[in-house]
Design a protein that fits this description.
By secondary structure, this protein is mainly alpha-helical. It has 5 helices and no strands. It has a domain of 81 residues. The protein is 67% helix and 0% strand. It starts with a helix and ends in an 11-residue tail after the last helix. The relative contact order is 0.08.
């Protein structure tokens, strides 16, 4: 299992490095490579980039699951002789980590839509403030200041 996981991880890294996802998306679906565009005959959610990303993600998920499965089998085999001495500590850590993970997952499920909702608020002037790059913001500030010199980002 570990050899399958390592091989798939190496294949994933090579393809992710040397294959252009946008180029492959254009080759798979030339009419709608990136986004939904009903004017160009692309009404559905399945685009070329979606297909490419799905294939990349499936290969990466199989690699990670094979590697985790191999480590789990090895860990189980090594723990058999000393299970009575070590399992209480492992259960204690596992139970606490599961609760912390569940709390963080719930917080993420609440915070993520809240931030997306906050972007639509116009009364406080946030707009897309949380998603803009600082350099774009500095450029806009320089344009607004009626041709005053912009803040230099390089020394």
């Amino acid at each position: 299992m570990i050899s399958i996981g390592i091989t798939l991880l190496i294949v994933f890294m090579l393809f992710y490095t040397f294959v252009s996802a946008p180029g492959l998306a254009k080759a798979i679906d030339p009419q709608c490579p990136f986004a939904i565009n009903p004017a160009r005959g692309c009404p559905g959610p399945i685009t070329g980039l979606f297909i490419v990303n799905t294939i990349f993600n499936i290969v990466l998920a199989i690699a990670v699951l094979c590697t985790l499965g191999a480590f789990t089998l090895r860990f189980h085999y090594l723990l058999r002789p000393v299970r009575k001495r070590t399992m209480s500590g492992l259960y204690l850590v596992g139970i606490n980590l599961a609760q912390v993970g569940a709390v963080f997952l719930l917080v993420w499920f609440v915070i993520y839509p809240l931030i997306a909702w906050m972007h639509s608020w116009s009364f406080i002037g946030l707009g897309s403030y949380l998603t803009l790059c600082a350099r774009q913001l500095l450029f806009r500030l320089a344009v607004r200041s009626h041709n005053r010199p912009a803040i230099s980002l390089t020394p």
